[in-house]
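The protein record reproduced below.
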Amino acid sequence: MPTCTQQQWDLLAPVWHNFEQAGTNADHLCRFAAELQSPAVVLGSGLGPLTKAIQECGIMSVIGADWSPEMARFARIRRGVSTVVASAELLPFADGSLQSVVCATGVINPQDSTGTAALINEVCRVATPGSSVVMTFFVPSIEMLCVYSALGLMTHGRQHSGRIVEL
């Protein structure tokens, strides 16, 4: 499956607020909030809804990491959260420096085993022994699959994420 490029995510940043609740949101995260500790990072933080939700749970030392400079910029503007522009496969954190790592929806692409392995290795590098790691996956609803198909973003059950910029 093609994946969105950094430039495509930058183009989506101004309108992503229309879609950000389609994946893991603050309500989902509440189930895990008691397990999270500072310092924490949200990988694939986008516009920052999970980063902000973690702060609202009392974890004040949390930073969002997204490889799109525009997503990171909009997160700082819209939600006032700290962000860093970085690939989830090459994080700017020291070994064993994080107590909690949250991988937001969309960071893990099950069809990209090389990228997924690199991401998991990087999470293991930056997480302290015994830290909390929350990995989330996007499983679209039937309604969302119908919308994807109607927009030409999916055919025969396969998503064409490279076409999303055409919207």
In short: The two ends are 18 Å apart (CA to CA). The longest strand covers residues 127-135. The chain has one domain: 6-139.
